[in-house]
Specification:
Keywords: Membrane, Transmembrane, Transmembrane helix
Distance between the termini: 23 Å
Oligomer: single chain
Protein name: DUF3311 domain-containing protein
Helix content: 55-70%
Largest sheet: 2 strands, antiparallel
Radius of gyration: 23 Å
Order of helices and strands: HEEHHH
Number of helices: 4
Strand content: under 5%
Shape: elongated
Structural class: mainly alpha
């Protein structure tokens, strides 16, 4: 990534903070202290409640990662138009080989 003088748009900043908060919340609620809310011998359609709870928060985590991938981590049009980096001819002349 190349440093740019442009600042992050407010919508991206809001989305980044929201996704971070959702991911941290899902970590706490899924496998952290939140699991104590459902730690009882009940079932949901034959699945123990505590497992269903963990799977629910796992899907929240997957959703956050997918949203971040498609909305925040995708390549910008500027990066797509850049040519791939190639070694310069001066490296070969100096005897530097990878």
């Amino acid at each position: 990534m190349h440093p740019t003088s442009k600042s992050t748009p407010p919508t991206n900043r809001w989305l980044k903070h929201s996704l971070t908060l959702a991911f941290v919340l899902s970590l706490v609620m899924g496998t952290g202290p939140g699991v104590l809310l459902v730690n009882r011998p009940d079932t949901i359609q034959g699945i123990p409640l505590v497992y269903a709870w963990g799977i629910l928060w796992y899907f929240v985590q997957v959703g956050v990662v997918l949203i971040a991938y498609f909305c925040l981590w995708s390549r910008s049009s500027d990066e797509e138009n850049e040519p791939p980096m190639t070694p310069s001819s001066t490296d070969d002349e100096e005897g530097v080989h990878a």
